[in-house]
Amino acid sequence: MRITVIALLLPLFLLACQKQAETPKAETAKQAEKAAEGQKPTEAKAADGEKAPATADGTKPAEEKAAEGEKAPEGKAVEGEKAPEGEKAPEGKAVEGEKAPEGKAVEGEKAPEGEKAAEGEKAAEGEKAAEAKPAEGAPTAEQPAGETPPKEGEVEKKFEKKSEFPEVIFETTKGAIRIELYPDKTPLTVQNFLQYAEDGFYVGTVFHRVVAGFVIQGGGYTKDLAEQPTRAPIENEAAKGISNARGTIAMARTNQRNSATSQFYISLRNNTMLDYRGESPQGWGYCAFGKVTEGMEVVDAIGSVRTGAAGMFPAEVPQEPIIINKVTVLK
């Protein structure tokens, strides 16, 4: 009997024990759920004052912006902020939201009406000045094209006579050369030379032949090496003339004794072998009729220029034309 009762009660006792053991577990689970619900908002929101963590790609989304009150990196102002006091915004670009410096209009803005008027007045004044004053070196109504007008405040150079003998002054692209002539020794030659000079024949001609350490020769060709028409040839007065010393001027000629016309040469050295030595073709000589009294440095400068072939001449022609621009005769 007792055994039967125990056998019946034992399952009920075990069932009760099982239920009692399960109840604390459920309560614990419910408490855990409630705790979790209260903690979720805290975990989702970062603590006030904490920095957000880096994102998956390693960049820092929040830290890229400068914290409020901090200065922007030097040379670049934060959008909407003024550049730090004492620092200039990058030149040529105004910071967005900033006022452009006074006196400079922001790109794309209209200049104030007052400034426009001032600019218009200045431009008008500049145009008037330009119209009143021609460009330097430009031909004017009084000065024909092709001639260089004298500079402002400069008068045309005038030469005074310095010798008892007739003088001729060549103004060349290398400088001025003053020559003294001797009509008492070689009257025909001096008269011929002076006639060409007074007629303006030599103006625009060149020194077409330069032989370093020997002579410079001119008086017959233009800068294009066109030969100028001349008068009849003259008698050779070499027998009465002066020696062909350095700095003397003499008449050039062909192998004919009396063939000189307009061409002349100036000796760069003592060329006594060109003097009269007798009545043979080798001794007729070349008539020297004057000498350089000023500008021998110009003669030497011409004598040292680079030469080569040009026109009909195989050699000895200056590569840069040396032109006689003006001739002055002082009697």
Give a written overview of the molecule.
With 331 residues, this protein is an alpha+beta fold. It has a domain at 167-330: Cyclophilin (Beta Barrel), CATH 2.40.100. Helices cover 25% and strands 16% of the residues. It has four helices and ten strands. The strands form two sheets. It has an eight-stranded antiparallel sheet with strand order 3-4-6-5-7-2-1-10. It has a two-stranded antiparallel sheet with strand order 8-9. Strand 1 (167-172) and strand 2 (175-181) form a beta hairpin. The radius of gyration is 54 Å and the shape is rod-shaped. The model is unreliable at 35-112 and 128-150 (pLDDT under 50).
Write the layout of secondary structure elements.
Layout: H1 2-44, H2 113-132, E1 167-172, E2 175-181, H3 187-198, E3 209-211, E4 215-218, E5 248-251, E6 264-267, E7 288-294, H4 296-302, E8 307-310, E9 313-318, E10 324-330
Task: Determine the N-to-C terminus distance.
Answer: 180 Å
The CATH topology of the domain at 167-330 turns out to be Cyclophilin
Give, in order, the helices and strands.
HHEEHEEEEEHEEE
**Which strand order does the major sheet show?**
3-4-6-5-7-2-1-10
CATH architecture of the domain at 167-330: Beta Barrel
Count of DSSP-assigned helices: 4
- Summarize the main sheet: 8 strands, antiparallel
